[in-house]
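2024-03-11 09:14:02 INFO worker-7 job=invfold-0412 stage=load source=structure_tokens
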């Protein structure tokens, strides 16, 4: 027995020594004010120095670290060889955000030959030089967002031929020099949003032959050279939202035959030249919202045969000519809210007086005095209908008789006083109905009964008259599984004794 106990003690002692050795070894290479641990599905070796008030880069980063996170400190300089001098270092991910970094020593990131992701967001870098990233050949993602970079000079990224994503958002970039992106032969995504660019020169994006997404949102771009995008043969998404453009020229897009998404919203565009989009035969989404476009006709839309989404909302003085959308046979979503256009089938008709609207699934309109029954009858596959800022007093019983696929109906604040009894009966797939903030005082007793479980009904903000004619609505709301918008519960307006009472709590014992 004694022998067995002694053996057991020896075994526990060995186990204790092994654990102590492991802990000591783990802590030995962990810098002060940092944490070292293994995490993630692959058990990566992490070094984390967050909010440690460090004023200098830690000196003892083990070469076995795979993830280095040093954020929210006060480190003005990334020194030479911060990861040691051995080329066998295993660092793959480095996050140096929010440190106040002003400068980077030459070749600071050249030693970790496996480095894939480098984030330097929200620091104080005023320039980018090729010395900063010398030797960082394996880097695939580089984040420089939120710095003070004002210009991009030639060849600053020339050694980063494997880079896939370059993010320069939220800087103060005013100019892009000739050949600034030369060498980035494999770049797929370039983010330049929220800068101070005013013009794009002819060689701004030279060398970016594989870029698929270019984000220039929220700059101050007024001028685009006709050749600015000419080298971007594989571009699929171009975002020019929130700039100061006043026209759209066809030369801009001549070489962008692979473009799928074009966002020109929130500019000052007054004129779209004829055939401006003629080369964009693969375009799927075009957003022209929030501009000053004066006219839209068939010549403006020429070439957009494969367009699925068209947004023209908030062009308040636009004149929409007959046949404007005739070529858009694949259109699935159309947003015409807050335009002065005459909304009707004539916009989809050609000279033979035939229409193409059968693929439209989402329709967004405003400024109507009645439901556009002629349009609705030509959109059998419509799934979402949204109407705003209108004066539609009645939803007639035949309103949706050709729209059996309609699922979401939004008729908020459109002046409704009446919904006729059979108006919703064709909508077997209804999942949401919003009729709040109108002038409804009652509803037909059979209107919502089929939808007490399948659809969410929003009808608050109406002056409901709570007599026995509305008792059915109370019972409907009290049924198990009934669904309505809890963010705005409907209350009684009249009679005075019930004003302010919630409809679903009414007692209708005398009815």
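2024-03-11 09:14:09 INFO worker-7 stage=emit residues=511
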């Amino acid at each position: 027995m004694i022998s067995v106990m002694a053996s057991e003690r020896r075994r526990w002692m060995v186990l204790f020594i092994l654990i102590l050795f492991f802990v000591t070894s783990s802590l030995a290479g962990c810098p002060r004010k940092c944490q070292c641990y293994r995490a993630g599905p692959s058990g990566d070796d992490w070094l984390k120095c967050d909010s440690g008030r460090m004023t200098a880069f830690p000196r003892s980063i083990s070469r076995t670290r795979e993830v280095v996170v040093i954020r929210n400190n006060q480190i003005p300089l990334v020194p030479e060889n911060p990861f040691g001098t051995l080329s066998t270092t295993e660092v793959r991910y480095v996050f140096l955000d929010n440190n106040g970094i002003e400068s980077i020593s030459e070749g600071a990131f050249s030693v970790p030959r496996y480095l894939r992701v480098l984030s330097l967001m929200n620091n104080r870098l005023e320039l980018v030089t090729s010395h900063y990233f010398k030797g960082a050949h394996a880097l695939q993602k580089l984040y420089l967002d939120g710095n003070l970079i004002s210009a991009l000079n030639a060849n600053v990224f020339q050694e980063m031929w494997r880079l896939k994503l370059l993010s320069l958002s939220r800087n103060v970039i005013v100019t892009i020099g000739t050949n600034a992106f030369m060498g980035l032969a494999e770049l797929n995504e370039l983010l330049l949003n929220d800068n101070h660019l005013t013009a794009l020169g002819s060689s701004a994006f030279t060398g970016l032959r594989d870029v698929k997404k270019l984000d220039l949102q929220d700059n101050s771009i007024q001028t685009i050279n006709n050749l600015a995008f000419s080298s971007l043969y594989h571009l699929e998404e171009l975002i020019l939202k929130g700039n100061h453009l006043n026209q759209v020229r066809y030369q801009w897009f001549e070489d962008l035959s692979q473009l799928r998404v074009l966002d020109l919203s929130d500019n000052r565009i007054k004129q779209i030249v004829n055939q401006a989009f003629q080369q964009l035969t693969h375009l799927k989404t075009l957003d022209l919202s929030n501009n000053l476009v004066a006219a839209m006709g068939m010549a403006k839309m020429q070439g957009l045969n494969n367009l699925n989404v068209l947004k023209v909302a908030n062009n308040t003085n636009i004149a929409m000519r007959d046949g404007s959308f005739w070529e858009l046979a694949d259109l699935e979503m159309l947003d015409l809210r807050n335009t002065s256009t005459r909304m009707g089938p004539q916009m989809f008709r050609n000279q033979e007086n035939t229409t193409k609207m059968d693929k439209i699934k989402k329709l967004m309109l405003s400024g109507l005095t009645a439901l556009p029954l002629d349009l609705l009858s030509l959109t059998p596959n419509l799934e979402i209908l949204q109407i705003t800022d209108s004066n539609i007093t009645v939803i007639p019983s035949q309103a949706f008789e050709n729209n059996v696929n309609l699922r979401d109906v939004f008729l908020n604040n459109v002046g409704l006083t009446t919904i006729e009894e059979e108006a919703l009966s064709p909508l077997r797939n209804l999942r949401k109905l919003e009729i709040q903030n109108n002038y409804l005082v009652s509803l037909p007793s059979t209107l919502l009964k089929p939808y007490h479980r399948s659809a969410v009904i929003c009808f608050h903000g109406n002056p409901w008259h709570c007599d026995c004619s509305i008792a059915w609505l109370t019972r409907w709301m009290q049924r198990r599984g009934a669904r309505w918008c809890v963010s705005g519960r409907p209350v009684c307006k009249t009679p005075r004794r019930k004003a302010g009472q919630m409809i679903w709590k009414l007692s209708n014992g005398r009815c």
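2024-03-11 09:14:09 INFO worker-7 stage=report msg="Confidence is low (pLDDT under 50) at residues 14-28."
2024-03-11 09:14:10 INFO worker-7 job finished
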